[in-house]
Amino acid sequence: MRTRLHLWPLALALILPAAPALGQPLTTAFTYQGELGASGGPASGTYDLRFALFSAPAGGTQSGVTLCADDVAVVDGRFTVELDFGPQFTGVQQHLEILVRPDTGSGCGDASGFTTLTPRTPLTATPNASFALTAAVAQTAHASAPAGFRFPDGSIQHRAAAGATSPLVTSGLPAGSTFTVTLGGTPATLVGAYTVNRVMSASGNTPTGGYTFQQGTFKVRRPLTSDTTWADWILTGTRPPLNMTLACNGASVVWSTSNIAIRQLRLTSVDGVTYEEAELHPSGTQLNLLRTVSGSAVTDPPSTDLPGTIFAINNAADPSIVVYGPTSGLLLPMDPTTGQSTGGRSFFTCTVRTNPFASPVIRDHFLNTANNVPAAVVVNGNQWRTGPRYYPTSCTLRLADDGLPIEEYGIVLHPPGT
After folding, report:
1. pTM for the complete prediction?
2. Domain around 62
3. Which long-range contacts (CB under 8 A, 24 or more apart) does 28-32 make?
């Protein structure tokens, strides 16, 4: 009688190792636990298993190597193995393919006799894994962080930047500036990015009217205590007030709403400290929150990895709006034989940064669906790319590495003649 092997999807679990002691870096290994069925019941015995990562539920491209696990004990259907594909979890969805056979006495390097289990299992790294495996410099202790690194508890590393492997993003706001967040009067820390997208045409280059909040981008965090207020709010559907205040040399910018939905509440651990993290969700009438500016402050532009590159609006170069890369343009349709254009235009896209005290013109244009204003990318005083009109396609409020907020805008620049 043929034995049919299968995984029971509802019983699958991906278990990452517990946080290591301070100073011990996380590795790329993780523990995988599953349940194996055979002929309608739980399997038992010794099995050989092969594991591979793919970029899609079916087909796709394999990531990393195929891993073998010989003589795995399966008891009442359950098995546990440790897997290490290396640094494959970079924020892109991966799918785990598993092949299995009863132990034959041969090593699992011999690929004969294996049954491929379907479907593949989607894998997503947990927050700790994402942080440890995708950061340019793995931060396992404050002492090893580059200057300006902002820790999840809100503290800033002020050491010299020697040894940092990537440029720090600074807000351009002067020393002494502060950014405070309260949710329902409770102090919190912004850990996500508040992003609003403009509704664009199918081609992606013209707004069609309206805005959408990018779900999952807006989060605040506080150390876990015995205070259950946040949990009570989500259980009762209460919408607490939110206030975020940037103070700079007597001037201020305040983002606020009298009520905001808590979409999800979770616990997370960083450096041995447990935090309560709330994912916030504005309603349709709160997409941009109430933004109030009091006074003015002299500031520098945020840092950029494209030095000397700024964004000029309506023929007025504004050094407070910097372009950072990479920039890109939609490719012109080309004939592969002649190399000649087959028609169509290339719409230039880029992202720009500014800080909240800078000129509000770009924000005003983001809120104005009918703007028809020329713009240009200027490099060291020379126009590099110009267009008769541009559209900000998204607006994001996030924290720079110095713990102070910056604004980022996605830009579509139309080519001449359109």
Report:
1. 0.59
2. 5-133
3. 28/84, 28/85, 28/86, 28/87, 28/88, 28/89, 28/133, 29/82, 29/83, 29/84, 30/82, 30/83, 30/84, 30/129, 31/80, 31/81, 31/82, 31/83, 32/80, 32/81, 32/82, 32/83, 32/96
